[in-house]
Design goal:
The chain is of the alpha/beta class. It is 31% helix and 21% strand. Bound molecules: guanosine-5'-diphosphate (GDP). Guanosine-5'-diphosphate binds next to helix 1. Belongs to the small GTPase superfamily. RGK family.
Length: 195
């Protein structure tokens, strides 16, 4: 019986040598209560393409996933709302991401109204960079308390030039697609997987 993998001690560090290489840092942004931590938790529970134990610090989740037959190592940061009196963490967040997931709740119009401001802040801190940004309308399962329609979500995403996806962290709906989409958006910009 026994475990098939060797348990090599360098497994944490080996991701830099993967094809398509390195860690892809994904920042979760958005208002309080929209479901960032729930989405991060789902990401943390994703089955890995290789059963190895990778790092999982508090609020930071690292997973290796297979996207279009190619492995990617994502590190998801759920630190946007950390105790941060001088805004240092948020500034770092805006500077260090390889991709951004901006989350609002489809049941909370206020969280949706904040999206534009957040996106402008991001674009201002990374001028002239074509950042992979995915707008997420979460809590799509709460049909009866929906305040933002799919169409509204889509049209804001078009206006702000980012991708749009609706998820339900509660039902685990469209969540894998979200993280796969993040990888694809990064790869598109790096020109790695164009046929
Ligand atoms: P955060 O402040 O953005 O990290 O939001 P949380 O992940 O802490 O979620 C806030 C609340 O919304 C919690 O009670 C979650 O259980 C709930 N929640 C998160 N995502 C969903 C979802 O997709 N559907 C429903 N029904 N509830 C959700």
């Amino acid at each position: 019986v026994g475990s098939p993998h060797s348990g090599s001690s360098d497994s944490v560090l080996s991701s830099d040598s993967l094809p398509g290489g390195g860690l892809l840092k994904v920042m979760l942004l958005g208002e309080s209560g929209v479901g960032k931590t729930a989405l991060a938790g789902i990401f943390a529970g994703l089955e890995e393409s290789q059963p190895q134990v990778l790092q999982s610090a508090e609020d930071t989740y690292e997973r290796r996933i297979l996207v279009d037959n190619e492995e990617a190592t994502l590190v998801v940061y759920d630190i946007w709302e950390s105790m941060d009196s001088c805004g240092w963490i948020q500034e770092n967040c805006l500077q260090m991401g390889d991709a951004y997931v901006i989350v609002f709740s489809v049941t909370d119009r206020v969280s949706f109204n904040k999206v534009t401001e957040l996106l402008l802040r991001l674009r201002t801190s990374r001028p002239n960079q074509d950042l992979p940004i995915i707008l997420v309308g979460n809590k799509s399962d709460l049909v009866r308390s929906r305040e933002v329609s799919r169409e509204e979500g889509r049209s804001v995403a078009v206006m702000l030039n980012c991708k749009y996806v609706e998820t339900s962290a509660a039902l685990d709906h469209n969540t894998r697609e979200l993280f796969e989409g993040v990888v694809r958006q990064i790869r598109l910009r790096r020109g790695e997987t164009r046929e």
